[in-house]
Write a structure and sequence with these properties.
By secondary structure, the protein is of the alpha+beta class. The protein has a single domain, classed as Winged helix-like DNA-binding domain superfamily/Winged helix DNA-binding domain (Arc Repressor Mutant, subunit A, Orthogonal Bundle), CATH 1.10.10.10. The protein has a three-stranded antiparallel beta sheet.
């Protein structure tokens, strides 16, 4: 079996790179975790959960996650308007990955 050569490798071609491109950043993993635990979630509830996030930032991250097919935005035609976010089947397929991150953090978190 031929040894892999780093000179021939391209990180951008890996599944790891693709996954990170979908879930990396300050807020995306937290949004996904929140929806995993509490879906469906309204915009204001999400904002309170994330604490110090600007409306524009949260809206942008939700739009990106929706465009990537990880979450769905449901608009209810009522007054006042009601919008909820939840995971798609594709988003739910990340639950095992997020659970593993949570497990690792729980096991390796320093005692306070």
């Amino acid at each position: 079996m031929e040894k892999k050569r780093i000179e021939d490798a391209n990180f951008d071609d890996t599944g790891y790179s693709y996954t990170l491109s979908l879930i990396s950043g300050k807020y995306k993993p937290i949004i996904l975790y929140c929806l995993m635990e509490y879906e469906p979630v309204r915009f204001n509830e999400m904002q309170r959960y994330l604490k110090k996030v600007a409306d524009k930032t949260l809206s942008q991250k939700l739009k990106e996650l929706e465009a990537d097919g990880l979450i769905v935005r449901t608009v209810y035609s009522q007054m006042p308007p009601k919008v909820e976010y939840s995971l798609t089947a594709r988003g739910r397929s990340l639950v095992n990955v997020l659970d593993k991150l949570c497990d690792w953090g729980t096991e390796n978190r320093p005692e306070t």
